[in-house]
Amino acid sequence: MNRHVSPLRFGLTFLVAFAILMGSFEASRGTAFERVFVEDLILAPTCALINAVTPGEQVTRVDRTIVSPGANLHVTRGCEGVEMFLLLIAGILAFPAPRKRRILGLLLGSLLAYVLSVARLMALHYTLRYSPGGWEALHGLILPLGPVILMAFFFMRWTSHGVASTSMEPSPDAA
Amino acid sequence: MRPEWRWALVAAAALAIGAGASQRYCGLAAPYYTLAARWIAFGHPWEVSKIEVVNSGPGMVLRLTGMVRDDDGRPAAKLVSKLQVAAVVMSPIVYWTLLLAWPVRSLRERLAALAIGIPVFLCLEAATTVCQLLDPLAYASAILSGDRNPVTWWEHWSRFLEAGGRIALALIAAIFAVTLSRPIFSSAAAGAGHGMPAPCAR
């Protein structure tokens, strides 16, 4: 298999796929799927992990808030880490690759996205609790962007190792 | 140095610069944001007084002060909208890092990409930060028009940006700028394999 994709075509496909995925997820807000995904699959394990690592925290989940005696972290839209899954799926859909490779990328990438989502929420909790001075930079830039950069590294590995005959080069009809 | 390590260093440096210089960047960009917001507000019953960086308790924010008129043109609501300065620098960080680190064949090609990148970047900033700051004005307009629980297109756009759209847009904008700069060098590169390598190509 020898497929090529121009960077612009990749970018546009990626953007459209991401917009559709994001719109679909937004449409699911308030449904059982969204509640299970955000509250049961992300927030609940985050609380359990915080309590396991630091039993003194005694965090509980109240709706979308991680509550502890010293800090209340309200997890709003955009803070759940869902975007990492959506960016991953959009990237894999936009890049030409064999189906098996795509599935492997989605599975491994989703696992990484999940770990990063939970880790990010844990980091936000500890920042709010113990270093509120660093909240602005961590919450506004580093913790949203850092995990996405790690996802990008995963994606780069996936494109360069797993799909050896596929490259981002100008297609014959590319400008 | 392995490409992965090089990219990791670039990313770490970009994050550090973004975290350290967000307030200064927003202060420098505020006049452009004000200009762009007034331009976008043209044709809407909105008036943008100013956009500035202010201390808002827990941290520094970019604050828009504006006014919305009702259907009869009378001033109806004075509004303030805010964005964290650290969040504002996300798209500039992604955009310029990609543009500066994108593999090119010569310094001239890099300079062309950067020159074309400036107007693309201004559009990106208007589409992201400025539109997000204007969202409350659109909300107020909808309320004044009788919609009790409006979710405007501006709100959908704002949600898109908050849910990773800023990063996705910065990525496509950088690719767009690089692609636009390529035809300038197409004749010089003819027959020289002018393909853009994948980010991790060796």
Structure in words:
The complex is a heterodimer of chains A (175) and B (202). Chain A is mainly alpha-helical and 175 residues long. Chain A has five helices and three strands. Chain A has one domain (7-162). Chain A has helices at residues 7-27, 32-53, 82-94, 99-130, 135-162; strands at 60-62, 65-67, 72-74. Chain A has a three-stranded antiparallel β-sheet with strand order 1-2-3, covered by helices on one side. In chain A, helix 3 (82-94) runs antiparallel to helix 4 (99-130). Helices cover 62% and strands 15% of the residues of chain B. Chain B has helices at residues 3-41, 85-88, 90-101, 107-144, 153-181, 186-189; strands at 46-55, 60-69, 75-84. Chains A and B meet through helix 1, helix 3 and helix 5 of A and helix 1, helix 2, helix 3 and helix 5 of B.
Keyword list:
heterodimer; A: 175 residues; mainly alpha; three-stranded antiparallel β-sheet; 5 helices; 3 strands; 66% helix; 5% strand; elongated; disordered C terminus; B: 202 residues; alpha+beta; 62% helix; 15% strand
Task: Describe this structure in a few short sentences.
The complex is a heterodimer of chains A (about 180) and B (about 200). Chain A has about 180 residues and is mainly alpha-helical.
